[in-house]
Amino acid sequence: MTEPVSHARRIRERAAAHPGQPVYRHIAADGAEPVFDWRWLDRRSDQVAGALAERGLGHGDRLGLALRNSPQFVLSVFAAWKLGAVPVPMRWDLPDWELDRVREVVRPAVHLDRGELPWLDGTAGREPVALPDIVSPHTHGICSSGATGTPKVIMGTSPSVCGPHYNRPLADVWQRVPPIPSPQTILVLAPMYHINAFSTLNNLLGGDRLVVLERFDAARVVDVIERYRVSTFTATPIMLQRIADVPGIERRDLSSIEWIMQGAAPMPASLTRRWCELVGPEKIIMAYGSSEGVGITAIRGDEWLTHPGSVGRGIWGTEVRVLDDAGASVPDGQLGEIFLRMPGSDRARYLGATPQLTPTPDGFRSIGDLGHLDADGFLYLADRRADLIVSGGANIFPAEVETALIDHPKVADVVVIGLRDEQWGRRVHALIQPADAADPPGLAEIRAFAKSRLAAYKVPKSIEIVETIPRSEATKVNRGRLLAARGG
């Protein structure tokens, strides 16, 4: 694949060249695992496209998709591309009032949610319509709550055109020897409203195969890896922790894995070393980027062992700077705001009233994360500026405290927030999901454990035992919502 072609044309080419090739397997919550080939994906997406056109979806329009990972989701995305429309996946796990706020920003010409599943399935009886070769002005939109909880909708950086990069895995930036086999079998763990999961559809167009979980379940992930010889997946730290905690994981067959990628949050060192033991450090990639696509850094596990805690150096032309509040570069090792610049990364735009990212005079942009560089140019994350806790005049990063506490044997999951406090301004407060509900940790033992790993001023002053940490289906947590529920 050398010449760029539209997504619509690529779907048709795949169906013509490999009509019966199984390329998409759905791992349903009810235990079913149906598989679909290119002929089915092409024909059914034509049928859905014709039905959507009758509902008014056309070139440049937005298609709202509040659907779980499912064949219907994939067909709807393909149908949008075939009409030159822009698919915008949305968090279906939001409460109705919050989803309505997102819809007001997206303003979709057509919106599909779980109530539309019978309608989507009903399109199977239609005669497929002839559709022109057409390009959407944006490949997709991505919705994010942002640090403040206000709707943030990011329009993709490029039109719906396939190029050679669609079958170049991120792992190839290290020019591995031997090269990664193609096609890859990619396991999709996260909901496809998340950019890392949604982007696997590009891999599908590029010739790879997808195995898509409707809902994350760690034990089932391991079964699926063994059964379908999965070669790669992308996961958050909490996903990797839950997979590593599957009983007997050391005896399971993970030999098919060529590489895995971790992103979304700093990775605890103990968990990184555990995965180095499970699959080998050379197969682990830790990356840092954003849905805005301002740039990307990455580090392989064997590099990480000599630069523990780093998220790597810039790849694909990404340059990294760490600046102070006046816009000046800070010395190596000193904390500042992370700015990235990558060729062709300046086209993403927010919809609605969200302020656009303001670039520096020479084109570097930031999404508000803080960190530092070392003398070798490796980047280290601290946390989001918006999540910073100022307690007694000292700056404390929740992610650092969470990383320290997660290794406590009685802690299954943890999130740290800064509650209002008359004495400290904000006090470090840890919400803890115990490993054993009948034997939760107490404040004294949590504080003693934390003191062995953190400076005294970073140690939680209060804890709260909860049945479960309220994470989204993508395993992300909204600290702002947790703060609001506890008085801000």
How many β-strand runs?
Answer: 26
CATH class of the largest domain: Alpha Beta
Count structural domains: 3
Strand order of the largest sheet: 3-2-11-10-12-13-14-15-16
Can you summarize the main beta sheet? Answer: 9 strands, mixed
- The second-level CATH architecture of the largest domain is 3-Layer(aba) Sandwich
Provide a descriptive summary of the structure in words:
Helices cover 26% and strands 24% of the residues. It is globular and about 70 Å long. The protein is built from 14 helices and 26 strands. 43% of the residues are buried. The chain is α/β, with parallel strands linked by helices. The mean pLDDT is 90. It folds into 3 domains: 5-265, ANL, N-terminal domain (Rossmann fold, 3-Layer(aba) Sandwich); 297-384, Luciferase, Domain 3 (Luciferase, domain 3, Roll), CATH 2.30.38; 388-485, 2-Layer Sandwich (GMP Synthetase, Chain A, domain 3). Strands 3-2-11-10-12-13-14-15-16 form a 9-stranded mixed beta sheet. Strands 17-18-20-21 form a 4-stranded antiparallel beta sheet. Strands 5-4-6 form a 3-stranded parallel beta sheet, with helices on one face.
Outline of this structure?
With 488 residues, this protein is α/β, with parallel strands linked by helices. Helices cover 26% and strands 24% of the residues. Helix 1 (7-17) runs antiparallel to helix 2 and helix 2 (38-54) packs across helix 3.
